[in-house]
Task: structure prediction
Amino acid sequence: MAQPLIEEQAPETVAATTPGMLRLLLSNRVAVVAGAVVVGFAAVALLAPALAPHDPTDQHPEAIRAAPFWHAAADGRFLLGTDHLGRDLLSRIIYGARVSILLGVVVVLLTLVMGTGLGMLAGYFRGWPDAVLSRIADTLLAFPFLIFALAIMAATGPNLVALVAALAFKGWVDFFRVARGDVLAAREADYVTAARGLGASTPHIIFREILPNIVPPLIVLSTLRMATIIIAEASLSFLGIGVPPSIPAWGTMVADGRGDIAGAWWIATLPGLAILALVLAVNLFGEGLRDALDPHMRN
Amino acid sequence: MLQLIPVLAGVSFVVFLTMHLTPGDPVEHMLGQAGRVTQEQIAELRAHYGLDQPLIVQYGVFLEHAARGDFGPSYSHLGRPVREVVAERLPATFELALFAFVLALALALPMGIIASLRPQGAFDRTATVGALLGISMPGFWLGIVLMIIFGLRLHWLPISGRIDLGLAPPPSTGLNTLDALLAANGPALWSALKHLILPGAAMAAPMAAMVMRMMRSSMIGVLGQDYIQFARAKGLPERTVVGKHALRNALIPTVNIVALQTGLLLSGNMIIETVFQYPGIGKLAVDAIAAADYPLVQAVVLIYALSYVMLNLAADILHAALDPRIRSPRSAG
Result:
């Protein structure tokens, strides 16, 4: 009986060491490229003021809907042309990365901390906190997320604080479920029993013994959630109830360009291409991470 | 079933609350277009719509009326009952959602199965990349790209509305395609279908992608099981092995994803209807948001929430029907 059990454990223990995970991740060429693209987007967002050739909100009335570089009538000053107000498209796309990435990171961190904290609480102490939190989580799970965010944003109008709240409202539930399940399993594990037997305090067991062991699935979930949040934010901004119109955001830019698709298709499509590229890279990186951290999920 | 009640109570309360936290007063909104009005007239209208009552009383009234499908008069549709305005648009949305649903499954299920037969083969790789793109693409952007390519460049398909002017069949069900069929009106049917293709495809893409991935991975999982090897060893033809033995078991996890994704299809609906100027309840809601028409937004959000919850329930029931293991012990026998 003991022999097959050990064999089953073997691949997990190889990957479960940090260098092992890293080696697996680095051997996945797609994930490495995707990770580089994500880092590239983050760098563009950070360095936006230095990279953008124009102020993204400056209007150039003399160059409204200027043509991009591949066009015969291109205006040399604006590489990707300008929109219906004469704002430089390239600069707006560069600045647009800021809001997408910032909101994605803030919302994911918020939901990660909240969901993991509550999940560990529920999983470790069980009893009534678990019953109450699990009931709330189940109820929220049945909420239609985007429609819900829409109802909140429709009421408050475009503003960043409400947007973070609307996007985070339900997001913590995913982290809660993963953390709770893993802690429930871990609290009966031998290493926890051993730590308890050696007289370790409850906070020590939770934070020093259990937490490091449930981090890998939470990292994977964070990455994949980030992709969802970026699309949700862009969708709300597209509808005019996400990011305030004064801040350049990709979803808003697609909406702004909608009226020009017959004559200047690039105004609406290029910012969307930026969303696609970033979300695709985040998704591919997340899937690479999952394969490296969690060999069971591979198929 | 019991899950339904807290969810609906929660949704209705938050919807009610959020819509009343707005800075703009709907009465001011309505009168803003009417020109000069006195304070008395404003107070009178507030009283008429019950906006002068305490919030909790307003919620009670709202719930009681909502249960009867009565959302009061719409602020932005000349005071017509919300119920009437929504009922007018509901068939259009139902038709589009149904079309997108069928399209998504018609693409995803066969593609998932074919991809699973040769993992890492050419078809599998192409389909996997396609699915990843479908998941990573914002629906509104895909809609616009489809409009540009198939509508504006190739002139193959219309980019807005439900049917060509003057072709609308006599309404009996409200579903243009079905009405055209009932009236045996070929041109109307063709026109209605053409108007569904682009918004339907944009709406179906993320769902098709998710369902295809699930179908593929659960088929791969099932095809590796011992009983499949056994069925093959018995000499059963491959078609029976895949089509009967494997498919039935691989469908169980897929059904869950289908229901979940249908819920997301509904969220996409609002955006896609806006992009394509499609006259359904999604477009209605987005316009109502701009007009601060609370009752109308509330009604549409509740319809979406109710459909979502019902779909989850349907998934649970179907799941139980397909998987004997989770049936109650009495019926499992």
Q: What stands out?
A: Confidence is low (pLDDT under 50) at residues 1-15 of chain A.
